[in-house]
Specification:
The chain has one domain: 434 Repressor (Amino-terminal Domain), CATH 1.10.260. Helices cover about 70% and strands about 0% of the residues. The chain is built from five helices and no strands. Helix 1 crosses helix 5. The mean pLDDT is about 95.
Length: about 70
């Protein structure tokens, strides 16, 4: 779920994975792993990604939270 929203946010910002990785100080393959839900970011990484994307972490997390389905 997080990976899909990260990818959308990155694409909305017009950045490639390489540009995002450079701006956030992360490796491009790590960005790929995050977007494919193979890894989960720490809070520090989340804030670095959001700073690089020009968005608030709370906005990105809210988008993920909306996608969650809760059994009734």
């Amino acid at each position: 779920m997080f990976g899909e929203e990260l990818r959308k946010a990155r694409e909305e910002s017009g950045k490639t994975q390489e540009e995002l990785s450079f701006d956030a100080g992360l490796h491009r393959t790590y960005i790929s792993q995050l977007e494919n839900d193979k890894k989960s970011p720490t809070l520090d990484v989340l804030f670095r990604l959001c700073d690089a994307l020009g968005t608030r972490a709370s906005v990105l997390i809210a988008r993920v939270e909306k996608k969650r389905t809760r059994p009734e």
